[in-house]
Write a structure and sequence with these properties.
Low-confidence stretches: 1-17
Order of helices and strands: HEHEHHHHEEHEEHEHEH
Number of strands: 8
Strand content: 5-15%
Number of helices: 10
Largest sheet: 8 strands, mixed
């Protein structure tokens, strides 16, 4: 584990000669790509997946991410030591959106009800509860103000163009701004201005960016899904039916892209852990580690042909 830091204290850029930095430059960039899917707090399980790959000595040559997958993957590309730094993770998660539908004592439920009223008000009559400015500022500090072009590992984040409905693949510009746009969950965060475009959560149209990861030059792509399977539940209201239709579309789009991955890694997370349960960090990392350890033989087998077929890139 790295040295403990006080909450809010952000260390500078990592040493380019560190063992971790050397690992990800040791082999051709096109070796292995990981596509990290969105899922709110459930996406924290990606940390455990990346930890296992590092411990196995597997160099990651490209990272694509959507929503929380983009945040975890982008910060890893900026500084892999973040994975072993609970204070910095806690500092980041302190500005994560809370669950407006809390359970517990009557005081907690009453407080949750007030939050829920505020949530509905902003969702129905506004563009979101939060501009995301605090989140982006915190991300920028942790990433040491890097641009995507400055990262050691090629990286792309997906977002959704509100006007056209197209996938926006963000491969340049300020890293924190790209992560903010990719994670701008509708109804929680307001849309993010990106040049002449307005962007929201990448999970709307590309929640598991296998194609974007392969376009970064990866020979083998591991797709990592933290999305629970659809529950066989019949909606009881019109609103419930609309939400169900949205979920059906999202699952179909993700399934189409997930099928294109060379290795499909599903992290089984209990349905009870929801998208706002950021307090389950340790448990979610453990779920990611367990799933990655089970998939490790398949991943190692998949990269063997790529190692023999790929030629080293010029220095």
């Amino acid at each position: 584990m790295t040295a403990t830091l006080a909450p809010g204290l952000i260390r500078g850029r990592r040493d380019a000669t560190s063992p971790r930095a050397a690992l990800h430059r040791a082999e051709p960039r096109s070796r292995l790509g990981v596509a990290l899917g969105g899922g709110g707090a459930r996406g924290l399980a990606h940390i455990g997946v990346l930890q296992v790959l590092e411990e196995a000595g597997i160099a990651i040559g490209a990272i694509g991410g959507a929503s929380m997958g983009a945040i975890v993957g982008g910060l890893f590309a900026a500084d892999p030591d973040l994975l072993d730094d609970p204070p910095r993770l806690a500092d980041l998660l302190s500005v994560a959106p809370g669950n407006p539908w809390r359970s517990g004592s009557w005081r907690q439920r009453a407080s949750g009800l007030l939050d829920a009223v505020d949530y509905v008000e902003h969702d129905l009559f506004g563009m979101g509860r939060d501009s995301g400015a605090r989140l982006e500022k915190r991300l920028d500090a942790i990433a040491a103000h890097r641009t995507i072009e400055e990262l050691d590992v090629p990286f792309a984040a997906t977002a959704t163009d509100v006007m056209s409905g197209d996938v926006a693949v963000l491969r340049s510009g300020n890293l924190a701004s790209a992560l903010h746009a990719s994670a701008a969950l509708p109804g929680v965060f307001t849309p993010v201005a990106w040049g002449s475009r307005w962007l929201i959560d990448g999970g709307v149209v590309s929640n598991l960016p296998v194609r974007a990861t392969r376009d970064l030059g990866a020979d083998v792509v591991v797709g990592v899904s933290v999305t629970p399977p659809l529950a066989p539940i019949m909606p009881r209201t019109g609103v419930g039916l609309l939400l169900r239709l949205n979920a059906l579309t999202a699952h179909r789009l993700q399934a189409e892209e997930f099928d294109e991955a060379d290795v499909r890694l599903v992290v089984p997370i209990p349905r009870e852990i929801g998208v706002f349960d950021f307090d389950q960090l340790d448990q979610l990392i453990a779920y990611g580690r367990s799933a990655a350890l089970r998939a490790l033989p398949e991943i190692e087998q998949a990269i063997k042909p790529a190692r023999s077929a790929s030629r080293p890139m010029p220095a």
